Amino acid sequence: EVQLQASGGGLVRNGGSLRLSCTASGFTFDDYAIAWFRQAPGKERERVSCISRIDGKTYYADSVKGRFTFSSDNAKNTVYLQMNNLKPDDTAIYYCAVPAPCARPIGRVNYWGQGTLVTVSS
Predict the structure, then answer these.
(1) Cα 21 to Cα 112: distance, rounded to the nearest angstrom
(2) Does residue 30 have a pLDDT over 80?
(3) Mean pLDDT computed over every residue of the chain
(4) Which long-range contacts (CB under 8 A, 24 or more apart) does 40-45 make?
(5) Pairing of strands 111-112, 92-98
(6) Strand 116-121 relative to strand 10-13: parallel, antiparallel, unpaired?
(7) What residues pair up with 78 in beta bridges, in sequence order?
(8) Bond prior to 41 in cis (omega within 30° of 0)
(9) Alpha-carbon gap, residue 10 to 98, rounded angstroms
(10) Nearest one of 102, 118, 114 to 23, comparing CA atoms
(11) How many CB atoms lie within 10 A of CB 27?
């Protein structure tokens, strides 16, 4: 059974930092591309960061580029999202999900973690 456990969310002030973690189990870590998504109140879920199967590069939504960093520790079956210079607009529930290479539409992503809430105060 595929399981994704996201953690690390919390309340932080404008300009602060958080590091989210997502630990995966139930599948071979290298076989699926994990991506980070978020959903703000009243908004659609959006992709925050993903890895392209075409060139292997990591891509970021324009709104987080230069502030967020996606990394992974294959030995721990864990991916991370380091979020710096957080802004109130970053307030959302953050999810990790598979399989989610950059080209895959959100509607075709099959497995979702439970999400972790990030709240950025102004």
Answers:
(1) 14
(2) no
(3) 93
(4) 40/89, 40/91, 40/92, 41/91, 41/92, 43/92, 45/95, 45/106
(5) antiparallel
(6) parallel
(7) 23, 73
(8) no
(9) 23
(10) 114
(11) 16
Please report where in the chains the tokens 């599948």 appear, as a residue: 27
15/59 Cα distance (integer angstroms): 22
Does residue 39 or residue 74 have the better pLDDT?
39
> Are 35 and 101 in contact, with CB atoms under 8 Å apart?
yes
Q: Phi, psi at residue 105, to the nearest 5°?
A: -60, 150
pLDDT given at position 53: 74
Alpha carbon distance 47, 37 (integer Å): 4
Which amino acid, 40? A
- Tell whether the torsion through CA atoms of 71, 79, 121 and 43 is positive or negative: positive
The count of residues in the chain is 122
